[in-house]
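Table S2 (text version). Query chain:
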Amino acid sequence: MDGISRRGLLGGLTGTAALGALSACDAGETAPTPPTGTAPPLDPGDWDSVRAQFALDPAKAQFAAYVFASPPAAVRAAIARHRDGFDVDTVGYLHEHEDEALRRIHAGAGGYLGVPGEQVCFTDSTTMGLGLLYGGLRLRPGDEVLTTEHDFYSTHDALRLRTERDGVTVRRVRLYAQAAAATTDEIVSALVKALTPATRVVAVTWVHSSTGVRLPIRALADVLAAHNRDRAPEQRALLCVDGVHGFGAVDAGPVELGCDFLVSGCHKWLFGPRGTGLVWGRPEAWARFQPTIPAFDQAGFGRWLGLGNTPANPAASPGGYHAFEHQWALAEAFAFHAAVGRTRIAERSTALATRLKDGLAGIGVKLVTPRSAELSAGVVCCAVGSLQPGTAAARLRDRGVITSTTPYNPSYLRFGASIVTSEADVDRALAAVRDLL
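Corresponding structure-token output:
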């Protein structure tokens, strides 16, 4: 893994580090600076204390906080600490702290996911991770990728670009007829029927941002294992999962899911620093991946300098200079979730989402998301009478209830029940929606 710092690679060889010049631009009037100061001490067992770690406006019911997260106080403080360190002495701070920072974020990700940290590489977003993964998987003429009609633009377009580049065949399957009535048997059966001997990649999304349906990834992994049983390693179908709306909200990692790759941003339900993401893969799956962006790791620089011929590590994070103050603060995001507890966070999100779904159904709102906790997570999608989703979201915002709309056709009003919402927020949202009917 790319745990070797630029200092170890370059410092002893050249004595310097090439840093890009920063250019300032006049952006006119600036927005108010959000607070980065201290919050009350965290009591992980008290949800009010957990909510108090966030700088989000407490006067508003936050049901879209996961879209682009506001991180908790410990993460904000880490970002500020790293930023200030870089501002004072860019090269010195980088060389002094990079080794330990990389160790901590790999350890944090591995601990949270329940996997060795060296199996994780870090990106800037889910979209970047999906683009790198689907652009880099080794496929031969005649191989095909199977995805679904329910996946987001990022998956569909990453696969479109792959098709345009080298003619890879991509097919889409519909896994359920109606989201609210979806069943595990229906989903699994649809996938099994769509598999062919040429299927090498199955590209799915854990929790659909279009409907709130949570796919039974473990069940899909089990039927794929049966499909792959007598196949050579290079002919097996890899299960690749866009996990962004399950990661941080559902109590499961790669071991429980049984997938081959898991891709996610860290700035949604994990409430990590903005501009962070990751890709996890099994070692056997990484072996079928060809990186696109050079890694700043020891092996790569050694080959380039003629000092060795160590094979490239496909799981190494993309190299280059990043927003390290954000990337390195991922350690505090994982630590925050560990303190509160992955299981407790998932149970909290499920309880709030269930309360919301029951309440919406009780006032006559059409639910799109399944009522079943097994086939849903924190995302709750619905249609409020004949109101357009954007109109409903705007009217709710006027009432202090922050929601979002799904960027699909058809579009729905979307709520996200998370650790920054409360029972009182749910009840306030239900009352506001009732006023719209």
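Notes on Table S2: The radius of gyration is 22 Å. Residues 1-34 have pLDDT under 50 and may be disordered.
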